[in-house]
Design goal:
The protein is an alpha/beta fold. It has helices spanning about 15-25, 40-50, 70-80, 105-130, 150-170, 210-220, 230-240, 250-259; strands at about 5-10, 30-35, 55-60, 85-90, 135-140, 175-180, 225-230. Helix 2 (about 40-50) links the parallel strand 2 and strand 3. Helix 3 packs parallel to helix 4. The longest helix is centred in the middle third of the chain and has 26 residues, at about 105-130. The chain is globular and about 45 Å long.
């Protein structure tokens, strides 16, 4: 069923994943939607088939399972489904004291947030390099710019992803692969991936909609890739941390986390 311009989006059954899918369908990409939860994934894929001309393939897979990324890449190859754009969006975060959280759940987070992305990117790259237009969008977080007590493992996974993604951008530049590292801050909770009502009060300006983040990521993709931190307040926060001694940052973040 070989067709051009397929975008693979992980974590595609909610939030940012759904927003990426809608935006890319509007840009004439065909879609491979991947998620762990079958019911919302199939329902969303059916909705897109009704509302857009895009070809939509939905694949239920738990990418936190070791080897799942490689198996998925082999499945796409055997189905003759060429991936031009990989959106590594799947991931989750845990909050709480490190010693009080489930070890198994934390290790699952590490596998999904880091191992699965490395595995899937490595497995898809050979096929992507054969195509004229190819890109990778890695969804990291502002959490990766500082140690975050009470989210210690989560912030570490995002620090790894940001570093990996920025290094990969330089490695793949001469091969014509555009790599975007997008680091959003807090997102407005919205299961269907559409923009919700603007947040008011003291949190106004801190929360972003999935649509805003996706728009910025695709803008950077079109302009040749790189790192982007959507939102003026998020940019200021990252800049301000550079003015504070690194040893003090975790103490400040810990106080804010407890507030």
């Amino acid at each position: 069923m070989k067709q051009e311009n397929f975008a693979l989006i992980t974590g595609a059954s909610r939030g940012l994943g759904m927003a990426f899918a809608r935006a890319l369908a509007g840009r004439h990409y065909n879609l491979v939607l991947v998620a762990r939860s079958p019911e919302p994934l199939h329902a969303f894929a059916s909705e897109l088939r009704r509302s857009t001309p895009a070809s939509v393939i939905d694949i239920q897979v738990d990418l936190s399972t070791p080897g799942a990324g490689q198996i998925l890449a082999e499945q796409l190859s055997s189905g003759d489904i060429p991936i031009n754009l990989l959106v590594n969006n799947a991931g989750f975060g845990l909050r709480g004291e490190f010693r009080g959280l489930s070890l198994l759940r934390q290790l699952e987070m590490l596998r999904l947030n880091n191992q699965a992305i490395v595995e899937l990117t490595y497995s898809l790259l050979p096929g992507m390099l054969e195509r004229r237009q190819k890109g990778i969008i890695n969804v990291s977080s502002t959490a990766g710019f500082q140690p975050i007590p009470f989210a210690s493992a989560y912030s570490a996974t995002k620090a790894f992803l940001t570093t990996f993604s920025l290094a990969l951008e330089q490695e793949l530049r001469d091969a014509g692969v555009t790599v975007v590292t997008v680091c959003p801050g807090r997102l407005r909770k919205n299961q269907n991936g559409e923009s919700g009502q603007p947040t008011r009060g003291k949190w106004a300006g801190i929360y972003q909609s999935p649509d805003e983040v996706v728009k910025e990521a695709l803008r950077v993709l079109a302009n040749g890739g790189g790192l982007t931190v959507p939102g003026a307040l998020n940019k200021f926060s990252i800049f301000a941390q550079r003015l504070i001694p690194r040893r003090l940052v975790p103490r400040l973040v810990a106080k804010m986390s407890k507030a």
